[in-house]
Amino acid sequence: MSQPTAIKMVRALGFPWATQDPFIFCAYHNDRYPKGNNELGPDASLGGRAIGQDFDPSREWRMYHGQTVPGFPHHPHSGFETVTIGMKGLIDHADSLGAAGRFGNGDVQWMTAGKGVQHSEMFPLLNAEGENPLELFQIWLNLPARSKKVAPHFKMLWAETIPEYKHTDDAGKATVAKIIAGQIGDSKAPAPAPDSWAAEEENEVAIWTIRMEAGAKWALPPTVAGLNRSLYFYQGQQASIDGQQFPASKIIDLYSEREALLHNTGGEPAYFLFLQGRPMNEPVVQHGPFVANDREGIIQIMQEYQATEFGGWPWPRPDQVHDKNKGRFARHVDGRVEEKSL
């Protein structure tokens, strides 16, 4: 008798990607930026672009809300967390609390917006001799009602500290998962931000990026029932789950208590993002960058932002970028500094 499939639902990828509670947003950016100019922007014409709102998916790269440097100049957040996975390229962070950083090429920034913070996320094009590829995920993880007003906080999960789980199948084909949150076997992610839903182990939050060699097979392990889990097949040719074939650009929602048999049936590597967590089962009201449990909460956040600007903006420019010779670093609100080489 065949086992029941782990597949619950299949959806198409859009922009942004659809998510399940406790996640509320997921964006994937993949840009092939040209060489950089003296201002750390693209050494190319910006003619014909909707500068300030450049999201055209038909182009090889986008300026997003940037005017000179691509990225997202200062903007507010409240009521949730951002988990930014810098796969390729570099991201410059600055915020209204005076914290700053440069990260990427495998690093992850985990930022708790809590009661409110402004930050900027710019993509400095440091290479003036060749291309500046950028690939990142930004995932919004909700905060429960009890934590909506916690103090803002950010921490870095440096690439050197993020564990990899490696599996080699009977044919010698490899699957590698980078564990940003959660655990596979003995491979456990670094601690998340302290007020996060992910900080409570019983919530079973998992964020993994997965690469499967052509032909590789791997059984995604089951866990307790009642969790929401989604597998985002975002790059590759085709893959099967429990024998059912899928092309790329699909979201496969899975039953958490059932093992899912993955097989990359394409002729090139297949790439997945995996999100899992216990649902909060709380009402979610979102108004742009603000998330609350009801409409009254949104009104309160907007009034607070209008009155305080969440501490104002202590930086000389809204699209703050750091010295081009600076390596990866994080300067925290308490004055603590972490420095890494590029």
Automatic annotation (TrEMBL):
Matching Gene3D superfamilies: Jelly Rolls
One Pfam family of this chain: Pirin
Binding site for Fe cation: 75, 77, 119, 121
The UniProt record lists the keyword Membrane: no
Pirin N-terminal domain ranges (all copies): 64-141
Keywords from the UniProt entry: Iron, Metal-binding
Stretches assigned to the Pirin C-terminal domain: 208-311
Iron found in the keyword field: yes
GO MF annotation, one: metal ion binding
Cofactor or coenzyme needed: Fe cation
Domain of life: Bacteria
Cofactor annotation comment: Binds 1 Fe cation per subunit.
InterPro entries found in the cross-reference section: Pirin, Pirin_C_dom, Pirin_N_dom, RmlC-like_jellyroll, RmlC_Cupin_sf
Family: Belongs to the pirin family.
The protein's name: Pirin family protein
